[in-house]
Amino acid sequence: MSGEFPMSWKAVPLVSPSGPSPARCPAHAGQDDAERAEAGEGPAPGGHLEELRREPLGLLRRSAKESAHRLARLDTGPGACLVVSDPDAVDVVLTDHDAAFFKPKMERWKQVLGENVLTSEGPAWARSRRRSMRITGARYVRRAARVVAEVTDERLRSWAGTGAVGVDGAADSPRSPCIPGSHDIPDIHEEMRTLTLAAVLRHLCGTDDDFDLRAFGRHLRTVMECIHALESAPAGAEPSARVERAFAHAAGELRAAVLRLVASHAGGDDLVGLLTAPPDTASDDGRAAEPLTPDQVCDEVLAHLIAGHESTATALAWSLLLLSRDADVTRRVRTEIGTTVGGRAPGPADLAGMPLLQAVFTEALRLCPPAWTIMRATGRPCELSGVRLPAGAVLLASPYSIQRSGRWFPRPDEFLPDRWLGDAAAGAPRYAYFPFGGGRRSCPGRMLAQVTAGVVLTRVLQGFRIEPVGEPPTADVGIILRPSPGTRLRAVPLRRESAGQREESP
Ligand code: HEM
């Protein structure tokens, strides 16, 4: 699904806004809606369902514009579904001091991932979350920076080599016809995905040897597409046998790959080591905690592998695409890199001294947040923004639409990393920008993602000039917001000079 994805900088639209369909705007949830919502009633099924499937970004943006301070009710069939566009209301939902909201629609994910930090609630989630926080903490992030640099350098050698660029790792990626030595990366998202998956495997599981990165990526894509298709189907629609079969097969392959990985784990100070070590804490009822079964270890590892690489890869792909179309920002970032680390790989402390590089990533996450919408449901009747909601009401908080609001971010569709260098965003409410979610279920991997992105972008810009290829990119809106399949990028090796002066290609 693509559709509306307005983006412009220097007056050049990345995607010409096709504009939302003329369907009517989501109603403001006023008292009438509150009553209908309370009764659990909906209008005639499907009012916004088709638009939500076809043009979700346009619909969410319109809701944010027209219902900035209120909830917008979507006509999606039986049951209440509301868009939350007021950052203060998002704060209430995500911070959730009263434990009124939970993560809905986890059943399909549980079939793939079992019970873990992503899919659980309650004490099981809390235990899992503690492990997650440990493995994404500062000590591990320092080590991750070294691993990411190592993996990136291996990958980039193929960019600079004999044409072996791209998802396949095959030596058949097209050389640019115009620029000697340059290479077209056939799918920048897949390229980044291969890179971040290899890095996360080495970091969390000790190795990516004998792991079929491409097959894992393919099966994960199938699982995500099936879940998206199944969950955006009209209520009561029977899933097709073909989708069910594809889902079951891909889910089985993902689990089998991780079970093999865990079985051959050599031991070490990583996630698998942490999960397979004898438990050192008492369980919630005071008895000695039981060791995890191989299936439970698999659940946790799989959840971290998926959460740990997919969003980071997507954010990196967007960052590179945005940079490829802004020569001035790219030149300034390269100069910053040259001044700070010269030609070597950065560590977390170096990255803290590169504000423009960080601003590029922050701005890419503002314009193109991989988690473009965060969903919650009410566990019991409650009130939000003056609207009484029944138990089971679905709430959509969209980083995409809120972060593109002109109220908080002037020229909202433009790529302007400099806005993060001054205090331009200082007056915005806390949840005007929330690409990593918020509250108790906020992303534990935020620091890891930022360091990974900093290292990859640094190494790419130290070695290559990146150029756009073809039409401006469009977005593929599924479970995550990614560049459409086949979005290309050109990498032109820079001359082997000292970093910071490597401006020109041969
Ligand atoms: C740019 C990269 C990333 C983005 C944009 C991102 C975004 C998010 C968001 C928005 C959530 C909250 C979802 C919700 O509330 O429903 C989340 C949760 C999570 N993320 Fe990330 N993430 C990124 C990278 C990572 C990395 C590197 C890890 C590494 C392990 C990770 C692990 C997790 C986990 C385990 C959760 C579930 C937390 C919980 O439910 O308690 N993420 N992420």
TrEMBL record:
<dbReference type="GO" id="GO:0016705">
    <property type="term" value="F:oxidoreductase activity, acting on paired donors, with incorporation or reduction of molecular oxygen"/>
</dbReference>
<keyword id="KW-0479">Metal-binding</keyword>
<feature type="compositionally biased region" description="Basic and acidic residues">
    <location>
        <begin position="30"/>
        <end position="39"/>
    </location>
</feature>
<dbReference type="InterPro" id="IPR050121">
    <property type="entry name" value="Cytochrome_P450_monoxygenase"/>
</dbReference>
<dbReference type="InterPro" id="IPR002403">
    <property type="entry name" value="Cyt_P450_E_grp-IV"/>
</dbReference>
<comment type="similarity">
    <text>Belongs to the cytochrome P450 family.</text>
</comment>
<keyword id="KW-0408">Iron</keyword>
<feature type="region of interest" description="Disordered">
    <location>
        <begin position="1"/>
        <end position="52"/>
    </location>
</feature>
<dbReference type="GO" id="GO:0005506">
    <property type="term" value="F:iron ion binding"/>
</dbReference>
<keyword id="KW-0560">Oxidoreductase</keyword>
<keyword id="KW-0503">Monooxygenase</keyword>
<dbReference type="InterPro" id="IPR036396">
    <property type="entry name" value="Cyt_P450_sf"/>
</dbReference>
<dbReference type="Pfam" id="PF00067">
    <property type="entry name" value="p450"/>
</dbReference>
<feature type="binding site" description="axial binding residue">
    <location>
        <position position="443"/>
    </location>
    <ligand>
        <name>heme</name>
    </ligand>
</feature>
<dbReference type="InterPro" id="IPR017972">
    <property type="entry name" value="Cyt_P450_CS"/>
</dbReference>
<dbReference type="GO" id="GO:0004497">
    <property type="term" value="F:monooxygenase activity"/>
</dbReference>
<protein>
    <submittedName>
        <fullName>Putative Epi-isozizaene 5-monooxygenase/(E)-beta-farnesene synthase</fullName>
    </submittedName>
</protein>
<dbReference type="GO" id="GO:0020037">
    <property type="term" value="F:heme binding"/>
</dbReference>
<dbReference type="InterPro" id="IPR001128">
    <property type="entry name" value="Cyt_P450"/>
</dbReference>
<keyword id="KW-0349">Heme</keyword>
